[in-house]
Amino acid sequence: MLKKLRLLTLISATMMALLFPFVSAAQAAKAIYYWVSHGSPTDPVWTLFLQGAERWAKDTGAEVRTSFHSGDVPSQQEAVRAAISAKARGIVTSTPDPGSLTKVIADAHAAGIPVIIMNTEDKTSGRDAYVGGDNVAIGKAAGEHAVKLLGGPGKATGNVVEIWGGMGTQPAHDRHDGFHAFTDKESGIRNLLNNQSGDWKQDKAYNIMTTALRNNEKIDLIYGHNDPMAYGAYLAAKDAGRDPDAIEVTAGGVLDLDGVRRFADYGVDRVVLPPLGFDLETLREQLGRFSEQVIEKVG
To answer: Which residues lie closer than 8 Å to 280 by C-beta, 6 or more apart?
Structure first.
């Protein structure tokens, strides 16, 4: 778990460094920065991103005020307004829904405060920059691999269960669109569900998969938009008495050696990694670390 922590926190720390690359410790100590997440403090991914922001604060001597808002849009908007009132030097945030932060980002800009969006993109928000993965590319990689698993281009056949992230979020739509750029070319692939949202959560994916298993005798592949939902689908198959090893599962996430073994244990066939860094030096460092900690040990 320590290795996973290191990989994810390095990504989050890079977000802060990218937004404020030239802040010395002495300068940062005089300023306040805000890190505002639409996620939940119980979500392990978001808590690890938080630790990255906290590490940046420790490294620079800056004060970073952090908050989680669990999908409560008015609460998150108020947190951004608090940052503006506090004359923050910069704000890092994520978007729960497209357009939900456009007004408060404009207010921040009017006060001379830069805003970076992390993880969940909203191109129309007016943000200064986005730090995160290319979700269309992630979906395409999953779709291409799904076609390969089901028989190959022009020959693929099988029943597919897709479990969406939040239906109102751009990353979910991007991962869906990328996936279907490959699978929709195959007449033998049948999609069993119609836009079922697991809201990025394991328990909701479990419930969706339970219903899918009850209504469909044959399921050949599960596409979960993230790893907790893929795991929820696996548990549902196991609890329903179906052989989860007979179902191929693909997901997105960040892995260390323990994560590779865990995914292998519950049948995930492919995981698409987000960027391990957002500048050349950090990317090289983290690819080297990932190679040492994972690739060399699993052969």
So the answer is: none
Ordered mean pLDDT values, 10 residues apiece, the chain (299 residues):
37 54 52 92 79 87 93 95 96 90 98 92 91 86 91 96 88 93 97 90 93 93 86 88 65 53 57 52 59 53
Long-range contacts of 97-101 (CB under 8 A, 24+ apart): 97/73, 97/166, 97/168, 97/169, 98/122, 98/124, 98/125, 98/168, 98/169, 98/170, 99/124, 99/125, 100/73, 100/76, 101/76, 101/77, 101/125
pLDDT tens digits for range 177-218: 999 999 999 999 999 998 899 988 889 999 999 999 999 989
How many CA atoms within 13 Å lie on the side-chain side of 153?
Answer: 3
Residues 125-156 as b/e (b if ≥16 CB within 10 A, e otherwise) read bbbbeebbbebbebbbbbbbbbbebbeeeeeb
Residue 257 near residue 3, CB atoms below 8 Å? yes
Q: Which H/E stretch holds residue 242?
A: none
171/21 Cα distance (integer angstroms): 27
Cα within 13 Å of Cα(230), Cβ side? 27
Q: Is 58 exposed, middle or buried (0-12, 13-18, 19+ CB in 10 A)?
A: exposed
* DSSP state at residue 49: H
Q: Which domains does the chain have, with CATH numbers?
A: 2-131 (3.40.50.2300), 135-272 (3.40.50.2300)
Quote the pTM value: 0.68
Say if residues 151 and 212 touch (Cβ distance below 8 Å).
no
Give residue 61's Cα distance to chain centre.
28
CA dist 133 and 50 (Å) reads 17
pLDDT digits (tens, 9 = 90+) for 273-296: 555 444 455 556 655 655 555 455
